[in-house]
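It is worth pausing here to work through a concrete case rather than discussing structure prediction in the abstract. The textbook approach is simple: state the sequence, then state the predicted structure, then interpret. We follow exactly that order.
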Amino acid sequence: MELGIYHEFPVLPGRGQAECFAAGFDIVDACEEYGLDVMWLAELHFDKPRALSASPLVLGAAIASRTERIRIGTSVQVLPLANPLRIAEEAATLDHISKGRLIFGVGRSGVVKTYEALNIAYSESKEREVECLEIIQRAWREDNFSYKGKFYDIKDVTVVPRPVQQPTPEIRVAAASVETFPAAGQAGLGLFLSARHEDARMFRQHIDVYRKAWTDAGHPGEAPVYLRCPGFVAKTDAAAQEAYGPTLMRHFQNQSRLLADSARRQNTPPDHARWKTSKRLTEITLEETLRGSVFIGSPDTVVGRLKDLQRDIGLSGVQLETNCAGLADHAAEREAIRLLAREVKSAFR
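Step two, the predicted structure:
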């Protein structure tokens, strides 16, 4: 079971940006010190109250220079927002700086206002994501290549540097739509899901489609499935809920506003899933959240819930959001990371 932290470099109440970066890097240091597997870095733009992680590849390079062991993942690199050749160069550079520790997680995000700010049509996001990923993979695999698609026309280009990990770093795709599951399986790419309060078992039918496509395409082994979700570990269930509950509830409020804003910008009808989820997040309680695929509790509780999900959907790993709205106490978050690495991880060896 791969265990990692999803990190946004959150904005902390009453703290300046320099202090927030310092606190964020201290969490990175804790993950390295205690022995977690991956530090997952968000890409978020133009959200001053929320987070500072606008450039995961830049942050990844800084993390690579201060660590030796922990892997560095993007969760996710939002492919449609930048030129794929530039992404290929910068991600390969990070792979070199980290000596081959990059996991390249990709997706397209659902935050419509970011696309509008960068003058990119959100309606094109899926096609752009597919095209960008193909270009990046070819840039890493081929000494010289040309490409002509709907959005990019590339002639006779050699990308330098090439990644340390050949032919490419491990690539994982965020499943944001039904068609992603068979496409990822056919391409032999790892898959990760996102759950706020939902039960990840709701994806089981789609996971089966993904794994069948993987097998049918002749890829070896079992297709890996990963999950990003809220998580916090303390000595007791009550202590974990007390430490994490306020930041999780604030996170749900923030997500509700984001979803509603994106729904308005897309002129979606009132019965659209974005509106329904937005309303649901304003009403949900911590007790209801705990019935979903979240990992908030004592080490024994978290181990049990992880093993149940591993059994039911073949879960390969998780990235836990340990301070999803910046309200968790720093010392308590550090202790949560220690318990996750020392007591939860040991149950899967």
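Step three, interpretation. Residues 12 and 326 are 5 Å apart (CA to CA). Residues 237-265 form the longest helix (29 residues).
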